[in-house]
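Try this one yourself first.
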């Protein structure tokens, strides 16, 4: 061959889509293709395939496999003369290496592609049964199955049948194959066949008439005894037949396998009997079945075996499917099933998943099935097992917007086509988009993307996945808005009753009120209503993902009513990606955050992702600077404290919102995995905020009463959880007040001034207003409620030297100056350090006294009727147990272990571990329990809007606490079990470390 000719051929091959022209030129020069080497029709046909190189390789192998020159000549003549065969054969060879292998092993099977008659265009079960009729064993059944598969694949890749027709034909071929396999099993055991009636019910995609090229074929078996036969014997025989039928299809032979037959959708799954009688099936579904099992029955279809029995099964169980929405636990089950759409996907695969990933096939299928369950009860037109048929019926009935349904139909067809072509290449079960460029190029070309197949494929895939991601939520909620708004001509309105059904199914307890809220928000022709109609379908989905969707929607209406005329509000929700979802989470997570927001709705701006927003907690210095500046601008103390309380309210909202969003997670970021970090952030933020508020209040009171200088130096010492930087949302501020007269000021005058400051601070911080009160608790002062509210530093020194009890030393472990005169606060700390970190440690009498006090507190202070095991503060393994254990270690060893000299519980635990006072395991157990109990207390306050030390008893509130702690709908029992388990382990450590002799 001359160099010029080679160059010309090389260029021509490149132009026709070959990626390895040199190898292609070699194959075209082979003996097998010599008669047609220069035929332009052949080259054009190869270039039209998904992978011309693969098609040419497959063609050469097929020619080499022909038994003699005559057969080879017949194939070549037919190939060049008959365009239908040429397109079909080369199309298959260019799309499927596995079917190319089959043709190379069975050289005559190309003849199955020659026929081109009208009946060949849309084959059904009868045609496939004829194609399988000659199979006499599992091996020949596989060969015949692949021969039939050839015809489907050929018409699929040539565009003779679309993706829905392809899926239907694959399901029909599976039906014919199951019948053939069952016939082989019956022939092998005629005595078993004689005593039983066995029906095979297709489930899943086979039952729905929408099978993939390679997929498990889901089935359920139902059997009855033949006339006069013993039922137990009949069931054993039916089980033998069913098992043999499954093996015939599933086992690997010299011709490979067909597909796995999966019977795990049967009652009780793997643990249940393979075969049941009809009455046994019926009893199970009436008494024990879960909602997802009724969802699976949507696609149940008798396909093989005793037709009369199969139909009886369908008639008996079909009505139960449409009663599922009336089940008591339907709402919780539905919410749990919705989350299953995106769960359990390996992180490395999520971006390549066609089926389970965001915007994948499962999103469409689940959405359609859920709407069928909700509305199919009263509308029989929706009762189709086929996804696209059901979607069309939903649109025709007004349950789904027509435009949305059309776009979803297009996206689903594209994604299913991708799935089909990916599986067809190797005939392997996969739902992952390949990564290799060669595979992506073949896949793109197979879908008609020829100019730049890899880039075009990625673009189209992302586009269609984006459509699904946006629409699968709107599918539920857009028609709800249409039910209360004006519709375009020709659109069908969702009936009011159907709208209520849907809202109930999605977790709304008061659907009538929800529809009123929707009408108020979305009706009308204003720009505000138009933006709301855009936002609400997505917001409603986020509300439904919470434990109290009704509250979320009501709160959103309240915020919108307050801010609806403010130009930035709806623009923020529409344009800043995080703001709308953050708001939905916050409004539906409980009472505290919405209550804080309603008092100043402009705080919504904090939820955005722009410079004006931000949920990161502010440092104490920044907060104090803002509060003091507000106080300086105020005309009097009352106005100053009001300003300080306003800052506190806003920052409490910031902290609560960040906590909720971190606990729930968002679509863009998972929930915070480190529970301890969440607790630490809340504790530090609320403690810093409380300190800044007290500093501002002190400044306001002093300025109004005495100008710039108080007659006495004055300091506020934080105690308890405040001193430990561990305040919760509902915590009081435990404090001590200390003062020291200024030079030349009489002690009685200084004391009077100090007491007046304290009284005025407490009054102003509790005045009724739109802002939450801050309660100051000085009960840990010397002599308790009987002692003076404020003392001089000398008075504290005298008291602690003469009268101090061991519990007071223990309480001082959490003492930390937070406001007022810094020097005085520092000297107070120096005064108490020898008391809380005694150089000689604790004597045995002191240890026994602490243990006695702890035991008395447990028995006397636990509320009557409370479950001790679920009391976060006083219950076994709760906050008190952990804190007293840590504090005992601090009192005994703090003098010689500097790390223990901290007011923070978790830091002291870590220091005890580092010092060898606690094992790593015991430290982790105590830390986990303390963090969990703190999280529960925070959750109760967020959910109920008032403090509490026990889990709520109202179901929705308890479920909301569960969602905050990371437990999905229906898992409240798991949450309580986990709490008991965690605190039980902690109590065992406490018994050893706190109560045991020698501890």
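Now uncover the answer:
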């Amino acid at each position: 061959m001359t160099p010029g000719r080679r160059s010309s051929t090389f260029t021509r091959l490149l132009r026709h889509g070959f990626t390895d022209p040199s190898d292609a030129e070699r194959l075209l020069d082979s003996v097998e293709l010599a008669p047609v080497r220069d035929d332009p029709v052949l080259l054009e046909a190869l270039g039209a395939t998904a992978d011309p190189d693969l098609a040419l390789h497959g063609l050469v192998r097929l020619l080499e496999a022909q038994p003699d020159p005559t057969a080879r000549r017949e194939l070549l003549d037919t190939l060049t003369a008959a365009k239908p065969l040429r397109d079909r054969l080369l199309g298959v060879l260019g799309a499927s290496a596995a079917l190319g292998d089959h043709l190379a092993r069975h050289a005559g099977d190309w003849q199955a592609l020659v026929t081109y008659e009208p009946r060949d265009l849309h084959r059904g079960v009868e045609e496939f049964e004829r194609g399988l009729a000659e199979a006499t064993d599992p091996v020949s059944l596989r060969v015949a199955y692949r021969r039939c598969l050839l015809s489907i694949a050929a018409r699929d890749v040539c565009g003779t049948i679309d993706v829905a027709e392809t899926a239907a034909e694959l399901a029909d071929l599976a039906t014919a194959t199951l019948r053939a396999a069952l016939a082989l099993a019956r022939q092998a055991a005629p005595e078993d066949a004689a005593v039983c009636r066995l029906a095979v019910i297709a489930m899943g995609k086979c039952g729905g008439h929408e099978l993939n090229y390679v997929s498990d074929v889901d089935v359920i078996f139902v059997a009855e005894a033949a006339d006069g036969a013993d039922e137990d014997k009949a069931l054993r025989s039916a089980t033998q037949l069913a098992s043999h039928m499954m093996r015939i299809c599933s086992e690997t032979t010299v011709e490979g396998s067909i597909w796995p037959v999966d019977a795990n959708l049967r009652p009780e799954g793997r643990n249940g009997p393979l075969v049941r009688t009809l009455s046994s099936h019926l009893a199970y579904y009436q008494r024990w079945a879960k909602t997802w099992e009724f969802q699976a029955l949507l696609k149940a279809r008798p396909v093989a075996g005793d037709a009369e029995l199969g139909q009886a099964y369908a008639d008996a169980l079909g009505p139960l499917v449409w009663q599922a929405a009336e089940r008591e636990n339907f709402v919780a089950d539905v919410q749990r099933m919705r989350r299953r759409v995106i769960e359990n996907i390996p992180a490395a695969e999520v971006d390549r998943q066609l089926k389970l990933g965001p915007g994948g096939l499962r999103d469409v299928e689940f959405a359609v099935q859920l709407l069928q369950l909700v509305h199919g009860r009263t509308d029989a037109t929706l009762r189709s097992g086929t996804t696209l048929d059901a979607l069309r019926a939903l649109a025709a009935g007004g349950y789904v917007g027509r435009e949305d349904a059309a776009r979803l139909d297009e996206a689903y067809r594209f994604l299913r086509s991708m799935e089909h072509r990916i599986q067809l290449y190797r005939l392997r079960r996969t739902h992952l988009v390949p990564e290799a460029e060669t595979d992506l190029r073949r896949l793109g070309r197979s879908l008609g993307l020829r100019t730049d197949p890899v880039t075009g494929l990625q673009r189209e895939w992302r586009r269609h996945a984006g459509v699904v991601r946006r629409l699968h939520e709107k599918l539920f909620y857009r028609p709800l808005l249409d039910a209360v708004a004006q519709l375009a001509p020709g659109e069908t309105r969702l009936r009011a009753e159907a709208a209520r059904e849907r809202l109930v199914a999605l977790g709304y307890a008061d659907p009538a009120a929800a529809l009123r809220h929707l009408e108020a928000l979305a009706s009308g022709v204003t720009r505000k209503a138009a933006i709301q109609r855009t936002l609400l379908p997505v917001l409603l989905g986020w509300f439904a993902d919470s434990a109290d969707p009704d509250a979320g929607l009501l709160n959103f209406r309240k915020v919108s009513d307050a801010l609806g005329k403010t130009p930035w509000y709806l623009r923020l929700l529409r344009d800043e990606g995080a703001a709308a979802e953050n708001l939905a989470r916050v409004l539906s997570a409980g009472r505290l955050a919405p209550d804080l927001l309603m008092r100043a709705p402009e705080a919504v701006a904090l939820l955005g992702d722009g410079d004006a927003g931000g949920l990161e907690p502010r440092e104490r210095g920044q907060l104090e600077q803002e509060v003091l500046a507000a106080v300086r601008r105020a005309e009097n103390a009352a106005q100053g404290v009001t300003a300080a309380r306003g800052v506190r309210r806003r920052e409490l909202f910031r902290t609560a919102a960040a906590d909720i969003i971190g606990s729930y997670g968002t679509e863009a970021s998972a929930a915070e995995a480190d529970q301890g970090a969440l607790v630490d952030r809340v504790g530090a933020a609320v403690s810093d905020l409380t300190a800044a508020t007290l500093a501002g209040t002190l400044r306001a009171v002093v300025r109004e009463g005495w100008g710039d200088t108080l007659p006495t130096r004055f300091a506020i010492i934080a105690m308890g959880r405040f001193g430990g930087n561990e305040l919760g949302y509902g915590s009081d501020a435990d404090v001590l007040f200390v003062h020291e007269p200024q030079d030349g000021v009489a002690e009685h005058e200084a004391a009077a001034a100090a007491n007046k400051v304290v009284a005025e601070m407490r009054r102003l911080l509790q005045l009724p207003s739109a802002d939450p009160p801050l309660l100051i608790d000085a009960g840990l002062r010397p002599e308790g409620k009987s002692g003076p509210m404020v003392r001089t530093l000398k008075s504290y020194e005298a008291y602690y030297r003469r009268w101090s009890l061991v519990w007071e030393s223990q309480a001082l472990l959490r003492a930390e100056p937070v406001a007022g005169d810094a020097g005085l606060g520092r000297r107070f700390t120096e005064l108490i350090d020898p008391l809380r970190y005694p150089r000689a440690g604790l004597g045995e009498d002191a240890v026994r006294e602490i243990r006695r006090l702890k035991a008395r507190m447990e028995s006397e202070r636990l509320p009557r009727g409370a479950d001790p095991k679920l009391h976060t503060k006083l219950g076994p393994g709760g906050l008190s147990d952990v804190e007293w254990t840590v504090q005992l270690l601090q009192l005994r060893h703090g003098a010689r272990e500097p790390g223990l000299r901290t007011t923070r519980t978790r830091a002291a635990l870590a220091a005890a571990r580092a010092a060898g006072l606690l094992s790593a395991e015991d430290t982790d157990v105590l830390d986990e329990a303390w963090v969990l109990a703190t999280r529960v207390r925070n959750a109760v306050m967020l959910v109920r809007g008032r403090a509490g030390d026990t889990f709520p008893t109202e179901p929705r509130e308890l479920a909301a606490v569960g969602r905050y702690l990371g437990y999905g709908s229906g898992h409240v029992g798991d949450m309580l079990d986990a709490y008991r388990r965690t605190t039980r382990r902690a109590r065992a450590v406490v018994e050893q470390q706190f109560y045991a002799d020698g501890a």
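Discussion: Strands lie at 196-202, 217-225, 261-262, 275-276, 301-305, 712-718, 733-741, 776-777, 790-792, 816-820. Residues 365 and 387 are 6 Å apart (CA to CA).
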